[in-house]
Amino acid sequence: MVSFFFDLTIFITGIFTISFLVIFICAWTIYYRVETSFLATNKKEIKKVISEVLTILTLTSIWISLLMGLLTLSGAVSFWLPKSRQKITVGSLPYYPLITLVVPAHNEELVIKQTISAILNLNYPHNKLEILLYADNCTDETAEMMRKTVLEESVHDQKIRVVERSGNGGKAGVLNDALKIATGKYIGVYDADAVPEKNALYFLVKKILEKPNRYKAAFGRNKTRNAQHNFLTKCINQEIVVTQRIQHVGIWQLFRIGRIPGTNFIIETDYVKKIGGWTNGALTEDTDISFKIMQEGMLIALAYSSEAFQQEPERIKDYYFQRLRWAKGNYQVVMANFKHLFDKSNWRVKLEAFYYSCTFFWFNAAIVLSDAFLISNLVALLIQLWRPETAIPFDFYSSNIMITQLLLFNWLLMILLYVLQINTAMATQYGQATTEQIWLSLISYFTYSQLFIVISIHAIISVLLDTVFHRDGSKWIKTKRFMD
């Protein structure tokens, strides 16, 4: 199944390459017409050519982003092809370093019991674990549920501490507090809704011990535990699988770049102290510290066999504000690290800064403009039913019919690539590559994925207003939890 999607990826790459060459030829044609139009000082002609140039630049930007996506997809497939024939085994490690596991929880009484139970049953020596459970500014029964679960399920040689915290700084503040008292060689983090698989920590430690002097952190994969609840969670599941199985794997395979997720990772304690810990109040403390690690020239290793199951939002409102927080956090990190494109930073930092800058600014702007062009043209077509003389604002002359057809064809390729990426990711997981997933990915392109545009616009406006009016940008709305 994976090899089939690999062949399809190569085919689409070829199509995009040919299309891209044609686009450049057409762009040169339009450039010639721009010069001619300005010489002729024909305002109507100039306006028409400008609309063509804007359309070409916008769609070319989108195709560049898609080519980058194809590159990542190819890297992921080249990683998974040999792995699909390998059996995962659990043997003895060279040694078992002491691990301090930190669980930050803010009003998580509904889900914290399952997380603690899973951590207490990890396949790792109990005397090599230190567990710090933080009830961070809780107004519910989170702390009491922590104590009750520990009392009922822990064994005598497990070192566990429940901390009721009232400080600020959010999750990053909790991690910095834990850093001060942690005794483990490595600190591991699990969110309050993240249920680690029995061998999750084992695989993280195994990976980091391969090159302990180079690997300063290791991260695993996260899966949606309520994926089948409704249409929204099914779409989120596809997004998470693509992020974990394609994007993270692809950039690790191609560039040895790792991105710490919010949960299911370990990091060397002394090294975190050396780089100054986490940034208090950061909305995406995981992305922020990933840049810090790479800036030092160290690696964040992918432990692809380590898995944790997290609960995703089940309502649009909860989903929207969660992703708005993530988007704002990523914009803040991008703006803070944009300077590294022009200094003597590590090349991985430059590449990540370039990638994030393109993704969150250039490519997002191109998508917004392309949607604006499409809506403008559709409105003009409707008006033409009553006023035939109405001009189409973003159109091409009849002599450019070839490029018009090419644009339509590439819109179809964009959809195909979206569906291909999702179903390639699904093919790497047992039982996930189904006909239902194909139809779901197609429907989600026109529904779920379009919500990203609204969230991105909202996020960048919010970040700008925070900067202009000196607002506290670290405040966020908590994601609602459910019993499952």
From TrEMBL:
Residues 101-221 form the Glycosyltransferase 2-like domain. The chain crosses the membrane at residues 6-32, 53-81, 360-385, 406-426, 438-465. Keywords: Glycosyltransferase, Membrane, Transferase, Transmembrane, Transmembrane helix. InterPro entries: Glyco_trans_2-like, Nucleotide-diphossugar_trans. GO terms for molecular function: glycosyltransferase activity. The keyword Membrane applies. The keyword Glycosyltransferase applies. It holds the Pfam family Glycos_transf_2. Belongs to the glycosyltransferase 2 family. This is Glycosyltransferase 2-like domain-containing protein.
